[in-house]
Amino acid sequence: MTELSAFRAEKDEFFGGHPQSPLTRDQRKEFQGLKYYPENESWRFEAKVEEFQEKVGFEMQTSTGGVQHYERFGKFTFQVDGETVELTIYQSENGYFLPFVDSQAGKETYPAGRYLEPEPLPGGRFLIDFNYAYNPYCAYNDSWSCPITPAENRLKVSIRAGEKLFHE
């Protein structure tokens, strides 16, 4: 069992049986596990982040009409099927945050996007592993409040890694 498959199994166990699961009691009764893309090492890489010189506060709208406060930390560039794309990493007191929407949104992935918490490495680099991309809790239950992916992180390419669309 890989580290990723163990992580996914633990997450499924939490979602299916823990009282703090984002699923409702009725959803947990029928829960068979989340759907994922197969693990793919090509979606795991170290990226040099171009840190923004001026850290600008950013209020990210939430699914319930509120806001969450972040700073625009920096951006990184990578290739998807020969196309160059950029994503912005945000920072809060809780760490780094990478929300994104890909071209599969609404078809294979959650329409409002998925999230990652990139791991900082020495030298201005980050470990980005899209295999760990996950849906926000509001994807399962409307009572949760989740940050809405900013326009600058909406991609026209497919990121076929991580968690897929949740179907009840």
Provide the descriptors you would attach to this structure in a database record.
168 residues; mainly beta; five-stranded antiparallel beta sheet; three-stranded antiparallel beta sheet; 2 helices; 8 strands
Structure description:
The chain is mostly beta strands. The protein has a domain of 113 residues. It is built from two helices and eight strands, in the order ααββββββββ. The longest helix is centred in the first third of the chain and has 15 residues.
Q: How many β-strand stretches?
A: 8
What is the C-alpha radius of gyration, as a whole number of Å?
16 Å
Q: What is the overall pLDDT average?
A: 94
Secondary-structure element sequence? HHEEEEEEEE
Write a brief structural summary.
The chain has helices at residues 3-17, 25-30, and strands at 44-48, 50-61, 67-80, 83-92, 95-100, 114-116, 119-121, 125-129. The chain is 12% helix and 35% strand. The chain starts with a helix and ends in a 39-residue tail after the last strand.
Please give the structural blueprint:
Blueprint: H1 3-17, H2 25-30, E1 44-48, E2 50-61, E3 67-80, E4 83-92, E5 95-100, E6 114-116, E7 119-121, E8 125-129
Antiparallel strand pairs: 1-8, 2-3, 3-4, 4-5, 5-6, 7-8
